[in-house]
Each structure stands twice: as C-alpha cells, then as structure tokens.
Amino acid sequence: VPKKLVTTVSGCADDALAGLVACNPGLRMLQGHRVVLRNDLPAIHGRVALLSGGGSGHEPAHAGYVGKGMLTGVVAGTVFASPSVGSVLAAIRAVTQAGAAGVLLIVKNYTGDRLNFGMALERARAEGADVRMVVVGDDCAFTTLGKAGRRGICGTVLIHKIAGALAEAGASLDEIEKKVMAAAKVMGTLGLSLSPCSIPGSKPSFQLAEDEMELGLGIHGEAGVRRMKVLPADKAVETMLKHMTDPSNASRLSLTPGSSVVLVVNNLGGLSCLELGIVAGAAVRCLENRGICIARALVGSFMTALEMAGVSLTLMLVDEELVKLIDAKTTAMAWPNLLAGPATTRREEVPAPVEGPRKTQDETGIGPGTARVQRVLERVCSTLLDMQDKLNELDRGAGDGDCGHTHARAAQAIREWMNSQPPPAAPAQLLSALADVVLEQMGGSSGVLYGLFLTAAARSLHGRSDSLAWADAMDAGIEAMQRYGGAAPGDRTMLDSLFAAAQALHSLRSPGANLLQVLEAAVQSAEAAAEATRHMEAGAGRASYIRSSRLEQPDPGAVAVAAVLGAVLE
C-alpha cells in the first residue's frame, strides 16, 4: 500500500477540510456536516446561491472554489465517494434560510452525485425551496456514448466560475441556469496520466508499465480509453487535442480555425510543476498552429485525482461575454489571480541589454609572450581532459558525478577560444578573458567560482607582472571565492588546494626567494592539500549534506585545482 501523509485513513476527508478552513478566514464549516460555506452568508440575501461538491481527493476542488464571485458552499463526501443526501439538504437549507433567491446545484455527471444531489433537490423542493440542478459532463474520452453519458471532470471549475460571476452580478436563477447549460455544451476535457493513484489505505487503482501512459482516464483513478507508450510532451498534447476534436468521436468538441477558447491545463495531482509548464507551452503552440485564439489560459491544480501523475486539458469555446465572466473578480482561493489577457507563444521579448564598451587597457609588452601562454593553457586543457573520468568518479560519492564533465567542458571551451584568436599576453587581460570563457561555457558552481577567482585576480595584475603581483592575484582570487562561495580552508572544497598553494607563494615576499623552488613548493602543497581532503568533513558545497562517513575519497574540486596549478607551474 503506497505511503500517505495522513493522520488517520478514516478521518482524511474531514481533516483536509478542517485544514483548509483553518487557514482561510473566508470559509466556515456547517455544524455536523462535511459542508463548507462562505463566511459572509448574509451577503447572498436576494441573490442566487450556488452549491457544488462531490467526493474528496480532488483538492482544491471543491472547497477551494467557495468565495465571493464563485460558489456559496460545497458538500464533500469521503475520498472518491458522493456526499450524503442529508448533507446536501443541510447546505440547501442553510443558504435558503440566509435569504437566497433560489439555489443552483452544479453536479458532475456521476451516478452517485446525480442520485444524492437529486434526492436532496426533491426534498428541498417539497419544503418550498426554488432549487435547480445542472449536470456537467465535459469528458471527451469516449468515442461512443453509453447510457451513462460523459463524465464531469475539470471543466466543471469553469462552470463554477461563470455561474459565480453571474450570481455576483445579480442574475436570476433562470438566466444563470440557461447560460451555464449553454457554456457546458461547448466545453471538453481530456486526461492523460503516467501513473495511477491510490485511496489512502488502499492499493493503486490500476497498473501502468514503466514505459506506458494512459489516455482518457477519469478523476477517480478509473483506467482510460487507450494505453500507449510514453510520448514526449509535445506529441502527447497533440494526441490529446486530436482525440478531443476527432470528428468520429461522439464526445468531441468542434474546434474550427478562428475560434476563441479558454484553456485549462490541470495537474491531476502528482505531476511536477516543471512538466506542467512544458505541457502548457505545448498546448498553446498546438492550438495556435490550428488557428485557435487562446483568450485565456489557466495553469495549475484545479481538479485532481489524489497523487496521479497526469494532466488534463479543458477547452471551452468563448465569446466576449464568457471571457468577461471568467475575468470577473473572485475571492475563491483556488482560482488563479492572473492578469487578464490571451495566451500566446509569440510574446515579444524584452530586448537584451547592450553591453557598454570595454576599457581595453593596452598592456602589450608586459608578461609572457602569446606562444608561452598558449603552451601553458594547452597543458592545462589536456590535463583536465585526461582526468575527466577520474573526477567524475570522485564526484559520485558526494555530488552529482559531473565534476569531470564540467572541467572537460571548460577545457574544450578554452581550446576553442585559443583557436579562434590568439590569447592576450597581458596577464590582466588574459585572466579576464579566461573568466569570460569559463563563466559562459563551464556551468555548475565551479564555473562561477573559477570566474570569480580569475576576475578578482585579474584586477590585481593591472599594469604588473612581477612574481609578487601573481602572489597578490592568488590572494585576491581566493578572497573573492570565499566571500561569495561561503567556504573556508578545511571545508573540503577546491579552496583547500588553492589556499595551500597561495600560502606557499607568500614566501615570494621574502628577499632572495628562489622563484622555481617556491613554485614547486606551491604545486606540492596544493597536491598534498587535495589528498588531505580525503579525511575532512565537508563544510560547504553539495557534499556538506552527506554524512562524512560516506566520503572516503579526496574532493574532486581540490584534485582538479591541484592538477591545474601543476600544469600552469610545470
């Protein structure tokens, strides 16, 4: 049985509603019933009250749509089960006694919901209440229609919104019923899922193989109409829209080029928001290619099926009046607070800022010749490329195993840069140019850290090239890395090797220091420091989140830095 974060299986529907009401000052529970009402019931005096509801497990539906400008109240059943007749009747009585000018029940087309809401409606009418019921069936899954008709799924939320805006504007029960029924006729929804869902305490409702997706499933974990191999998002969306509008599909939605629609991209509960954004973009593109105008697009979790990793697309054909009703203000917490306007993939981009002219300091004649620079850089590049697999292997213990790839990317980029133009010989310009290359091409936090180091080091070398200037540059680079990266020596990072080498370079400040001996000592210190990270506990970077007992290897960043210094100072 899949894990669930509930307090008790039997109390999960009540607990979820209680949590929603606790956090939302606009909602109240109806005593003794699983019914949520607006907290300002007196405000509906003389207006039409709107009630909806159904099983729990579809959150934020239905209680998330209670508020001014949407529903007056909702009646909830247990997970995936219709609410009781008694609770529906209690909700009707509560709004009638608050002075409502009629009650409209908005019900999804399921037998249980129709029966329980219908029975309550008959009893309320017998008590003299003016109650009507609209049954929503927006599912486009079934190509031949059985007796049960189309299921009511996510499109119902648009009906809540349209009815709510009309009621808020003071429309009569007749008018609301008529307009809502007309809107429901020009609307279609289709679901697609990568996984089933499971009711708390139960096994999943159906099984899907690793490489399968299910088309046309409902919101109660029922299997769909077609099982197929997993498709990329854009192809999956095309398949969905094709099925929804297929002329041979009895439950199709007729879409003609030039039509205006409201699009709802609904997360069925367990899809990541990243995937949802990809699907939304694909849906807009696909509709645009068909010549459809997307007057509004809503993207989010509107009517879910517990943790089902899937998505549903809803399309409603709209005119100006319907769009105005969709745009009308509401306090319902689950309705998105969006800027009104059409959806399009052809939005104009903000032009990229123009980079100011660079101060080119002409410092030719200082520092090593171009040929020597090329030789050293080539040594660095081949060293890093040769170490790629070793660094990846070291990184697997604590990181994401890509340290070698990242350094190899930098090496390739430096090689390409050298082939495209001779590197500047002046040290400050050389390091600045290298900083640009690694920042653009290397990626990862190491790219930024090297970029910081080289940029700060370059500043110390303006107009200087003596060995002391290089020792100062090393210190300046390390200081910048520490300031922004947050690591200190001993934290098991690339800084350990750099710091050790910098300490060794400090002896260049003593009179009569032997340059070659100091450089050799710097490389040896860096290599020893890299090896010493094997026994350190990570204090910064991604590895710091991993228990130190698992890190028996030296830090890959420190090893890479030691190798680079070795290649430079060889």
TrEMBL record:
Catalyzes both the phosphorylation of dihydroxyacetone and of glyceraldehyde, and the splitting of ribonucleoside diphosphate-X compounds among which FAD is the best substrate. Represses IFIH1-mediated cellular antiviral response. Its EC number is 2.7.1.28, 2.7.1.29, 4.6.1.15. It holds the Pfam family Dak1. This is Triokinase/FMN cyclase. The active site is at residue 220. GO terms for biological process: glycerol catabolic process. InterPro entries: DhaK_ATP (IPR012734), DhaK_dom (IPR004006), DhaL_dom (IPR004007), DhaL_dom_sf (IPR036117), Dihydroxyacetone_Kinase (IPR050861). Residues 8-335 form the DhaK domain. Residues 371-570 form the DhaL domain. GO terms for cellular component: cytosol. Residues 346-367 are annotated as: Disordered. Homodimer. Interacts with IFIH1 (via the CARD domains), the interaction is inhibited by viral infection. PANTHER family: TRIOKINASE/FMN CYCLASE (PTHR28629), TRIOKINASE_FMN CYCLASE (PTHR28629:SF4). Keywords: ATP-binding, Cobalt, FAD, Flavoprotein, Kinase, Lyase, Magnesium, Manganese, Metal-binding, Multifunctional enzyme, Nucleotide-binding, Phosphoprotein, Transferase. GO terms for molecular function: ATP binding; FAD-AMP lyase (cyclizing) activity; glycerone kinase activity; metal ion binding; triokinase activity.
